[in-house]
Recover the amino acids of this structure.
């Protein structure tokens, strides 16, 4: 018997309990909250990392022969590498066990996606992982998002560790969540952590489905999951440089041009070097240069973020970006702000349109009260942006049918439309 088989055969070698049981079905004595059981090892041990086509073919065959839903997770190198690509993909399925796949060695997982077919994916915070999974050929036909399920069920803490602890009674070690997953080879403790992230996702999904059904919210969750699975990829962000941290300090158009030039130069360098842009030049340094408009390298080097550790060549390239901004004509300078898509900021409504402000106040109060009654976050009942758009420009006449149609046009799901339409009809009438 191998070490992995021995571990699987004897639950005491991995934890003081067995995660295959259903601890949520047994109630502790009144007034007693049992300590969570540490989950120390995957039940079949740490699987080898799949990093070549031959090993990937074996995983594809195993998952094609497996049954039931597939637990899926991905690890990125946010803050270390450029972009949000996946550096490790973890999967688990009954009959197939757990697989750890290196997308650097196996950049195309289309065959695995086909092997899984229309089986349900289980992810935690699906919208975070789906873009990087899509890049390597994996797209779910159906999914169950355990984080979103927790929100709809009214849990106050919905991180994976908190959900596993609250719902299943197990403690996951989360110390490696922010490490550099582009590291090769990946250390064994990181691989253990990665395997454990999908170890209990099926159990968590089953428990949350029962709880949502008990609360009468399961259909709501299924509608939300369908919306996530079928959503198109987000379009590229327009003028991403405007999201530079500290941008609110930059008032003049010439200063904005400096931010744009420095941001663009930094992004080009970061992409070429495959490092996080913040490791090339910090946002705070960009803003300092924009505010100061340094006329030369000497002045630039005196600014925070451009100190003695910055080499002469680097200083010259940053100064060149500043000089490009300084040389632009007035016509070429960026405008103070992006064109608004939708209504103005609510703080200005009282002056611009007092009736709209009254509608928004009534709508917010009604939505908040209903969300509290249903024990779910207000933004999951209906997005604040949808409420603002409806209150700023309500249909005329604001009948229930017209309001419902407007909500559907803004992307609200049927369950949301059914619940909030009466509230919003009254709010619109109040204005």
């Amino acid at each position: 018997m191998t070490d992995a088989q021995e571990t699987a055969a004897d639950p005491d070698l991995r934890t003081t309990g067995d995660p295959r049981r259903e601890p949520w079905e047994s109630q502790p004595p009144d007034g007693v909250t049992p300590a969570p059981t540490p989950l120390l090892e995957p039940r079949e041990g740490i699987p080898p990392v799949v990093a070549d086509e031959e090993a990937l073919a074996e995983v594809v065959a195993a998952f094609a022969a497996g049954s039931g839903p597939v637990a899926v997770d991905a690890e990125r190198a946010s803050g270390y590498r450029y972009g949000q690509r996946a550096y490790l993909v973890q999967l688990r399925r009954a009959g197939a066990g757990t697989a750890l796949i290196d997308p650097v060695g196996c950049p195309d997982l289309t065959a695995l996606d086909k092997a899984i077919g229309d089986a349900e994916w289980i992810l935690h915070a699906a919208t975070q992982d789906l873009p990087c999974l899509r890049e390597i050929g994996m797209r779910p036909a159906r999914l169950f998002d355990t984080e979103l399920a927790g929100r709809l069920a009214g849990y106050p803490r919905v991180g994976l560790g908190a959900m596993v602890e609250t719902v299943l009674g197990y403690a996951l070690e989360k110390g490696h969540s922010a490490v550099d997953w582009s590291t090769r080879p990946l250390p064994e403790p990181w691989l253990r952590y990665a395997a454990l992230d999908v170890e209990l996702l099926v159990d968590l999904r089953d428990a949350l489905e029962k709880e949502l059904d008990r609360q009468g919210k399961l259909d709501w969750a299924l509608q939300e999951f369908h919306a996530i699975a079928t959503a198109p990829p987000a379009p590229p962000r327009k003028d991403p440089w405007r999201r530079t941290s500290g941008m609110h300090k930059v008032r003049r158009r010439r200063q904005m041009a400096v931010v744009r030039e420095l941001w663009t130069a930094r992004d080009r360098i970061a992409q070429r070097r495959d490092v996080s842009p913040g490791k090339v030049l910090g946002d705070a340094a960009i803003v300092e240069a924009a505010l100061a408009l340094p006329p030369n390298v000497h002045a630039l080097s005196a600014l925070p973020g451009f100190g003695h550790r910055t080499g002469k060549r680097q200083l010259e390239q940053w100064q060149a970006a500043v000089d490009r901004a300084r040389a632009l004509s007035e016509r070429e300078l960026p405008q103070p702000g992006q064109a608004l898509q939708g209504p103005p900021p609510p703080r200005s409504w009282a002056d611009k349109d007092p009736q709209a402000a009254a509608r928004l106040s009534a709508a917010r109060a009604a939505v908040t009260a209903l969300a509290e009654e249903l024990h779910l976050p207000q933004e999951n009942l209906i997005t604040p942006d949808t409420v603002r758009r409806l209150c700023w420009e309500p249909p005329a006449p604001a009948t229930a049918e017209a309001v419902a149609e407007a909500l559907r046009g803004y992307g609200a799901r049927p369950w949301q439309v059914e619940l909030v339409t009466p509230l919003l009809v009254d709010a619109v009438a109040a204005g």
Remarks:
- Residues 253-273 form the longest helix (21 residues).
- The chain has three domains: 3-230, 240-332, 346-430.
- DSSP finds 20 helices and eight strands in the chain.
- The two ends are 74 Å apart (CA to CA).
